[in-house]
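The record is passed on directly below:
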Amino acid sequence: MEVRSVYKYARISPKKARDVAREIQGLSVSDALDALNFTPRKAAFLIGKTLKSAVANAENNHDLVAEALHVKEANISQGPMFRRFKPRARGSASAIRKRTSHIFIILTDEIGIEEKAGRSRGPKKKEKPGDGKGASGGPAADQQERAAADPEAAAMAAAASEEGPAEPEEAAVTEPASADPEPSATETTEEESEKSAG
């Protein structure tokens, strides 16, 4: 179930409020409140009020437990703008825009919402297709995929990894089997010895 709360005409610009709202999306309510309490910005205070209002709505109007709720969305939209004017040089005037925001917070108790892990601030690295570390995650993941496909090969690979690096073995030379096998030298000598004896 989704529960929402709206703070309209908040006296802060949407650009400043969106920076804080982005940080709490996907978090549980307790984590979001902690993050807002330790953020020293005006937007954090206003969004915190809206978040507490949404939690109160969920508990009182919909009989939900606050610990099971997550922030599904935290949207900031632009409200009306107050225009003020300031006198400037040579009798001119310049406009001052006093912006306002509408803060929308939607909470949900559905399990499909994933908690946000720590975001990495650096640029994303692109992996080359031929570097052996494809989307599957490197050589170890490739070995696991091969093991799932062929269990016998996986058992042999595991045995080889336990023994250590394998030493090169000499290839055994095998002769192709002919239709008429020739008697070996030992067999012919035995037959000749029997004839001579008999």
User: Anything to note?
Assistant: The helical segments are 14-24, 29-37, 42-62, 139-149, 151-163, 185-197. The two ends are 104 Å apart (CA to CA).
